[in-house]
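All the exercises in this workshop are built on plain-text protein records. The record below serves as our worked example for the rest of this section.
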Amino acid sequence: MSGDVLSQNEIDALLSAISTGEMSAEEMKKEDETRKVKAYDFKRALRFSKDQIRSLTRIHENFARLLTTYFSAQLRTYVQINVASVDQIPFEEFIRSIPNMTLINIFEVPPLEGNILMEVNPNVAYSMLDLLMGGTGGPSSKADDLTEIETKILTNLYERSFDNLREAWSSIIDIDPYLTEMEVNPQFLQMISPNETVVVISFNIVIGESSGMINICIPHVVLEPIVPNLSVRYWMQSNKKEPTEEQSKQLEKRLKQARLPVIAELGKSRMSIQELLYLQRGDMLTLDKGMDELLTIKVGDIPKFKGQPGQIRNRMAVQIIETIVDGGDEDDE
C-alpha cells in the first residue's frame, strides 16, 4: 500500500470489497507493486533538493521586499512585489514559457561563473518607463520598439535594482552583479544547453493599475559551487564574520578619536524647592566635600577617577590621583 493514511471509511470499503469478492488480496498486492514504479524524465533532472529550494525561496522573498522599496522610491508610486513560485526546469522550457518579445537583462555575478537572467514582462517594463518619464504608468507591450534612450533608462533602473540582490545573497555569498546586455527576443539566447537545469524564481509585481511578472533564471552551473551552502544547517547557523585586521585597526582608530565629556565634580548639595526658588546672586552653597578631600572625576556619567584640584598656567586643572574600580561606590543622588 502507499504511505498515505487511510480513513476509517476507506478501510471499511476495502474490507467490504475483499469480503464480497470484488477485489482479491493478490490484486491489491499487484496494485501496490505497480504504484512503486515512478516515471522519471531524464530531460528534467532535479538538481536541487527541496531543502535547497526552500533556501532559495527565503533569499528571494527578502529580495522581493528590497525590490518593493527600491522600485517604490524610483517610480514614486506604490509597488507591490512578492514571490509567486520557485521551480527547477530545463532552460528550454523556461525560454518557451516567456513571451516572444520581452525584456531580458543578462547579468554576471562574480565570483560565481556564468550568467543569470532577469526577464521583465513588457507591460511592467513600459509602465515603469512611463512613470520614470513623468507619465501615469499606463501598460504597453511594444518591447521591440524601444529607442536607445529608453533602453538606457531601463538598463540603469534594472542594474541598480541588482544591488538589492547582492544584499539578499549576502548571508550565503558576497556577489557583485553587473549588467552585460539587454535582449528582447529569447530565441537569441544561447547561454547554456537547452537541457541544463535552471531555477526560475517568478515574482508577481503590481504597479498602480498595471501588473505582470518578473522572472529570475539562475542556471545550476552558476550555483553549483555554493549548493552546499543552501542547506538549512548552513542557513540557520550564525554567519557572523570576524573583522579583518585592517577593519580592526580602523575601528580602533575611530574609537580613539571619539570625544567624551570629562567632569570634575567639586561636590553636591541638597536643598528644598522653596530654598531653590529664593536663591540669589552672592548666596553660598555648602557642599558635601571638605577642602582636603579628593574630587570625583566622571567620564560621561560614570565615576572613573579621584583627583585633586589645582592650577596650570593660570588655568584651573585637576590632577588624577587614583582610579575608581568598577565605577566606584559614589552616591548618584
In short: The mean pLDDT is 80. The first helix runs from residue 8 to 20.
